[in-house]
Protein: Aldehyde dehydrogenase
Organism: Marisediminicola antarctica
Amino acid sequence: MTSTSLDELEIIAARAEHVAAEWAETSPSDRAAALVAAADALTASAPELIAIAMQETGLAEARLAGELKRTAVQLRLFAEVVLDGGYLDVRIDEADPDFVLGPRADLRRYLIPLGPVLNYAASNFPFAFSVAGGDTASALAAGCPVIVKAHSGHPRLSEATARVVNHALAGAGAPDGILQVVMGQDAGVSLLQDARIQAGSFTGSIHAGQLLAGIAADRPTPIPFYGELGSVNPVFVTADALAERGEQIADGFVASVSGSAGQLCTKPGFLFVPSGHGLAEGLAERAGQVPEHRLLYPGIAKGFRDRRDTILATNGVSVIAEGSLRFDDAGQGWATPTLVSVSAAALVDAEDALLGEAFGPLAIVVEYENDHELADLADELFAGNLTGTVHAAAGETSLPLRKLVDWLSRHTGRVLFGGWPTGVAVTPAMQHGGPWPATTSDSGTSVGTASISRFLRAVSYQGAPDELLPEPLRDDNPWDVPQRRSPAGESPGWGSRA
């Protein structure tokens, strides 16, 4: 992979800055049409793109086909968001000479695009979190040009995806330069320091994310940086749930841990079950039936080997399914699931060795003594996570369960009941983000329609003549967007409904 030179970076950044105003002012219908054209082009190019992705990532054809479909669906979903216009959050306060706090001028507020966005592609989702993935789709929908720092694990796919999407965007009449790709770590750092970049988005490791977030914050003019960094996604099973559907839970757990070789940010890293659960034999049998899967690239394989070795060597850890890990001459690794067991007390004693994310097909089964301790255990062991899952029996509403759910709602972005955290739905109500270290900004999401808000900021116009207002704020509303109006004369009645 050839890194983008400094001269090339200057051209790319200048092009993004130049085109920002034009793209921001593009009508909703034209912007939506461009997003749909990109989705159609990706779908039409699926055979070519999936073949490249299989070679570069080792992911299975079926997984990649589903991911490419998800990527196209994301683009189409954001086309609907743009056409709806609600994301602009238009608020109009009519001039009111009799306002209770003194005369009020006409005030009109809405959200505008930040400007050029730098998106760092992820290794484990070469379509859905890469060149044309969710961060790109939401930023383009917001009206921001996007520069993608391609991931070194799939450079040919990144170039091919950019070619397909840009051809479609041009065919739809979108301005040139709203989607560009750069290569190399130095290019990614240099652009983040460039004053023309107005926001950053990232999916990757805690270490890299912290470094980049620090760069964004230390700029002369700091910019928002939305990083998805690390999550172990604990799952808690009550005794009643275990008795009710233990075999079903074992099936779902192994499938969730081993899917895509465990290389998912939502993989359940810890399964809390009552001591004496009796699942070990069944879990070992299920894990033993999972065929080996290539890990994404040598760096991921080496990191998984190191975490696996540390966990297996930790006092108090018992092996349920040892799994396997082999390397070829090129450093590529192939793995089968490793499952281990530890008591809750031993996990507390060895938390420095065991609590870190194991990015690959490995999970830890934690045996607890009493469900009254679950919320306190969670509070002692875990910081922020993308997800937290509860498996309870039908109708179970005990006080310990309520305390656990309350803890999860305060420390995770998504609380699941009876399911598994892998398989993130692309839909308006999805929250894919959580408190630190799951993300650098726990108010944001990188999946779902709310993710568009990361790339917008508010501006108000006071006393502006209608002909100088942006289209969404004008009385004739040429963009036909929702406008929330506060009419004159209503302030004396505030509080009367209480």
